[in-house]
Design a protein that fits this description.
Elements: H1 4-13, E1 17-20, E2 24-29, E3 35-39, E4 44-48, E5 55-60, E6 68-72, E7 75-79, E8 83-88, E9 94-99, E10 106-112, E11 117-122, E12 127-133, E13 141-148, E14 154-161, E15 164-169, E16 174-180, E17 187-194, E18 206-209, E19 215-218, E20 224-227, E21 233-237, E22 244-249, E23 255-259, E24 264-268
Antiparallel strand pairs: 1-24, 2-3, 3-4, 4-5, 6-7, 7-8, 8-9, 10-11, 11-12, 12-13, 14-15, 15-16, 16-17, 18-19, 19-20, 20-21, 22-23, 23-24
Length: 274
């Protein structure tokens, strides 16, 4: 739906469906079609029915303060301060533990090269960390490369293809693009979006892009700020007293959000047929 004002009007007039979880973080879809998130407070991983937001299953994780969640090839990847747990999506058992001396406060993860490369934001030392999978069927990853960033607290990641991705700054509410320069061993960083005029509260968590090329930037208490592909402001999706951490947009603009402050996941179906 290309008209942002009409889309926002539809989204804001629909009664959402909520799922309940303490301090939810990232949102992913798995091979079962479940919406999955983690709780920062009690370190649980929860699978939701993506239609009615009821809980399918959940498991307690082995470490405290689960920070971030990703999914690849039948496994959940849960980031903690200094490690990444790999969890089988079928039985919710822990199958591996990925570590690196340069990993200090994991904030997001993404996969490149058909899952063979894992990219991680290590926020406290301002690194992008690159890991390679030991074999195509293995959950073992080993560190191969790190690149420092120019800004404070790198956070969210969004892969576009194997040679281009975006990263956010939690501190500055900015978004940067990265394009591969030398066989994926060196990446050119460019500032492409600045949300500081919208929110002075540091909360530049995650970004996604819809099928019209609009950026949807989750900025906590400011809600989700929408920009065009040139970085110009288009609109705002916000909810009273909320802290929006992550946003996922699916077919026909069904939107899922995680709300850290009000301890809920949100599903909004604007009933648009694209």
């Amino acid at each position: 739906m290309s008209n942002t004002t009409d889309l926002l009007n539809k989204l804001l007039t629909i009664i959402p469906i909520y799922g309940r979880i303490l301090n939810p973080r990232c949102l992913v879809f798995d091979n079962h079609g479940y919406l999955v998130t983690i709780s920062l407070i009690d370190s649980t991983l929860v699978q939701f029915n993506a239609t009615d937001m009821t809980i399918i299953d959940q498991t307690n994780l082995s470490f405290n303060s689960s920070k971030t969640l990703s999914y690849n090839n039948g496994n959940y990847f849960v980031g903690f301060r200094d490690r990444i747990l790999v969890i089988d999506s079928e039985n919710l058992t822990e199958v591996n533990n990925i570590t690196s001396t340069n990993l200090i406060e994991t904030r997001d993860m993404m996969f490149l090269n058909n899952g063979r490369t894992l990219v991680v934001t290590s926020t406290n030392n301002k690194y992008l960390l690159f890991f390679n999978r030991s074999s195509i069927i293995s959950t073992d990853f080993y560190p191969v490369y790190e690149q420092s960033v120019s800004y404070t607290f790198p956070h969210g990641l969004l892969a576009i293809n194997d040679t281009f991705f975006y990263a956010t700054s939690w501190a500055y509410n900015t978004v940067y693009s990265y394009s591969a320069i030398s066989g994926n061993n060196l990446w050119k960083e460019s500032l492409i979006l600045d949300g500081r005029s919208i929110s002075t509260w540091s909360y530049g968590s995650h970004i996604t892009i819809d099928d019209c090329g609009r950026f949807w930037y989750s900025l906590g208490p400011s809600g989700v700020v929408i920009y065009d592909k040139y970085g110009s402001f288009l609109g705002l999706l916000s909810f009273p007293n909320s802290m929006i951490f992550a946003t996922v947009i699916t077919d026909n603009y069904i939107i899922y959000l995680s709300d850290e402050k009000l301890n809920r996941t949100i599903r909004i179906n604007p009933n648009i047929q694209c």
